[in-house]
């Protein structure tokens, strides 16, 4: 993982001299105790630039080798919530010492950015299949049909673990990839429970639910909030 020490100019010149003398890559490598790939790289550079010294770099050299970049990218793909400190420790264990800033710059060059993880409802497979089935069945419905739909639901959200913002490394347009989200459930203490509704024309009334909701309370909520919301939104006849 750690970068190897660069060869001195004398060794590089010796490799070129032996190549000019007609020796092959393997023979040169064996005689000088170097890798064949190293010998080949030096000779190719000499053929192209007619020099064995390193060319001036446009900026500071990369502190993480290509293998190290591949390692941290693999880690982040599998665990998007991996922190920069975790990656610093992983590289340190592999022999490369870098800072958290270097980790961040490397990930951004690879097309990733640090974003707040989106909070989404925790769904079982049966829920996912049911929603997908509904979406496919109504995929070609016209806009006129959806304008007549008034959606309603009640919720009380409690985040698993610490109720704070978590960040993930992800690419653009990947916000709702399951690996990049935090699942939430409709139970837990400390939060209020709300009922609300909306349609293509806007939002309806919002009602706070006190106590445990049963069938009678739910019908009362619909009677006091759903119909007034439909009238306020001018849903017209035939709304659902």
Present the secondary structure layout.
Blueprint: H1 9-20, H2 25-32, H3 36-49, H4 66-78, H5 84-93, H6 100-109, E1 113-116, E2 118-121, H7 125-137, H8 143-147, E3 150-155, E4 158-159, E5 167-170, E6 181-185, E7 193-199, E8 202-209, H9 215-232
Parallel strand pairs: 2-6
Antiparallel strand pairs: 1-5, 3-7, 4-6, 7-8
Helix pairs in contact: 1-2, 1-3, 2-3, 5-6
Short description:
The chain has 9 helices and 8 strands. It is an alpha+beta fold and 240 residues long.
How would you sum up this structure, described in words?
The protein is α+β, with helices and mostly antiparallel strands. The chain folds into 3 domains: 9-49; 66-111; 118-232, Ribonuclease H-like superfamily/Ribonuclease H (Nucleotidyltransferase, domain 5). It has 9 helices and 8 strands. The protein has helices at residues 9-20, 25-32, 36-49, 66-78, 84-93, 100-109, 125-137, 143-147, 215-232; strands at residues 113-116, 118-121, 150-155, 158-159, 167-170, 181-185, 193-199, 202-209. The strands form 3 sheets. Strands 2-6-4 form a 3-stranded mixed β-sheet, with no helix packed on it. Strand 7 and strand 8 (202-209) form a beta hairpin. Helix 1 (9-20) packs across helix 2. The longest helix has 18 residues, at 215-232. The radius of gyration is 31 Å and the shape is elongated. The two termini are 62 Å apart. The model has no long low-confidence stretch (mean pLDDT 83).
Adjacency order of strands in the biggest sheet: 2-6-4
Could you give me the name of the CATH homologous superfamily of the largest domain? Ribonuclease H-like superfamily/Ribonuclease H
The CATH architecture name of the largest domain reads: 2-Layer Sandwich
Rg (CA only): 31 Å
The helix content is 40-55%
Q: How many domain modules?
A: 3
Head-to-tail CA distance between termini? 62 Å
Q: Could you report the average pLDDT, rounded to the nearest whole number?
A: 83
| Sheet with most strands | 3 strands, mixed
CATH fold descriptor of the largest domain: Nucleotidyltransferase, domain 5
Oligomer: single chain
- The SSE string, one letter per element, is HHHHHHEEHHEEEEEEH
Strand content: 15-25%
| Count of distinct strands | 8
Which structural class best describes the helix and strand composition?
alpha+beta
